[in-house]
Amino acid sequence: MNTTGTPVVFIHGLWLHATSWAPWVELFSQAGYAPVAPGWPGDPDTVEAARANPDSIAGHGIDDVTGHYAAIIDELPARPVLIGHSFGGMIAEKLLGMDYGAAAIGIDAAQIKGVLPLPLSSLRSTLPVFKNPANKHKAVSLTAEQFRYSFGNALSETESGELYERWTIPAPGQPLFEAATANFSLHSPDKVNTGNEGRGPLLLIMGGRDHTVPEAITKSTVKQYRHSPAVTDLEEFPDRGHSLTIDHGWREVAGACLAWLSKQGL
């Protein structure tokens, strides 16, 4: 792995293990970057261990996860490029607003405070957590059928099932509950400093067929940055769902990220 290039920190979202970034880490290393893909606090090192010990994953909220990655970034030789998927994308936005990143890319990033649209498909995707209020303090797993709706709806049933078996782990319920109440909380941990005029450039990527983070959420997120003159770009992959970082077309998305970073001089 390259250790001399610009650091890149990959941040996974709910229900996927950090090792799902492995192909991206390899590609970015080949492109001259110095990438790492740390797990969330409490995440075991492997998918199998995470499934066997969900209690270690439970109880970690947005501020906890943000602080965890901030501490990792503090040990790096330079401010990194932050690339996150789903809730990892929201964490990347939050860290960028706190000036922890040279740039950030949020891929199907979860909603931030101020985003109002909440499409029915997004509600259905998160129902496994919200159906029980006690899940706020637990780690919740998806069934293969639930993963198919939330992540793999743009894929064949076979590929969706293979991705489910390979990468899924239990996810803490707390971040979802925090995001759901963000617009009713003055000091919500889901708040991002979208007005930061000196932050690095931001790219938001959306999948046109995403059920978990539909394009209405991403487009509304872009509007939250309207008061900052810093670069905020949007790119869409019309035929892709929430699995776009791990499915057969991941390289196309990764290539778009590399092209955008090159355009930013990073």
Fold and architecture overview:
- Helix content is 37%, strand content 13%.
- The protein is α/β, with parallel strands linked by helices.
- It has one domain (7-263): 3-Layer(aba) Sandwich (Rossmann fold), CATH 3.40.50.
- The strands form two sheets. It has a six-stranded parallel β-sheet, sandwiched between helices.
- The two termini are 18 Å apart.
- The model has no long low-confidence stretch (mean pLDDT 94).
Question: In terms of topology, how is this protein built?
Answer:
Layout: E1 7-11, H1 22-30, E2 34-36, H2 47-52, H3 62-74, E3 81-85, H4 87-97, E4 103-107, H5 120-130, E5 139-140, H6 144-150, H7 157-167, E6 171-172, H8 174-180, E7 202-207, H9 215-224, E8 232-237, H10 250-263
Helix pairs in contact: 3-4, 5-6
Can you say what the CATH homologous superfamily is? Alpha/Beta hydrolase fold, catalytic domain
Using the coordinates above, name the CATH class.
Alpha Beta
Class of secondary structure makeup: alpha/beta
| Number of DSSP strand runs | 8
Fill in the keyword field for this structure.
single chain; 266 residues; alpha/beta
Task: Briefly characterize the structure.
The chain has 266 residues and is an alpha/beta fold.
